[in-house]
Write a structure and sequence with these properties.
Strand order of the largest sheet: 5-4-1-6-7-8
Largest sheet: 6 strands, parallel
Number of helices: 6
Strand content: 15-25%
Bound molecules: zinc ion
Oligomer: single chain
Amino acid sequence: MKLGVFIERDGVLNQVRLEGQHQVSPLTLDEFKVNGEVTPLLKRLKAAGLVLIATTNQPGLSRGYLFRRELDRMHDALRRALPLDDILVCPHDETDRCPCRKPKPGLLIEAGFKWHLDLDRSFVVSDKWQDAEAARATGCTSLLLESPWTRSVHHDFLLPNLVAVIDKLLQLHRSHRALVASERL
Ligand SMILES: [Zn+2]
């Protein structure tokens, strides 16, 4: 089985506008700016054989102020800039009570089936508590960036920046592989 890294899109892979304490997702391709520092970091994960999956809640689709065609254009740009294997979107609003709006784990479970991932040894990277919660529900290890959106929910690691997150993730991945290899001897 393969191992995955689920990465929150807004605020990690692309920049967001702040309104008060809230992140505002880009609504058009013009507004969509990929975080340049992410590219070499994702290449390191890719080189380690990990499946890279962006996940994102986009309730604007359901609420009517984000259009699917525009979102597709943004995601085409994201795929061109970053070595992502997949981008999974929850298009629903809170009131839709869907199984995929994070903190619910639906997107992770769906990706697990689609990509044959061992979720117990997969990882979640985010700046938000909702992803840590989805990670906990599926057995993934969560690595959060320090931010105003982490709250006090369970998370496995809280780190100051994305470089530290990726270093930690690769260290965990290597030590686990070493453990698995030693069990096979
Ligand atoms: Zn949903």
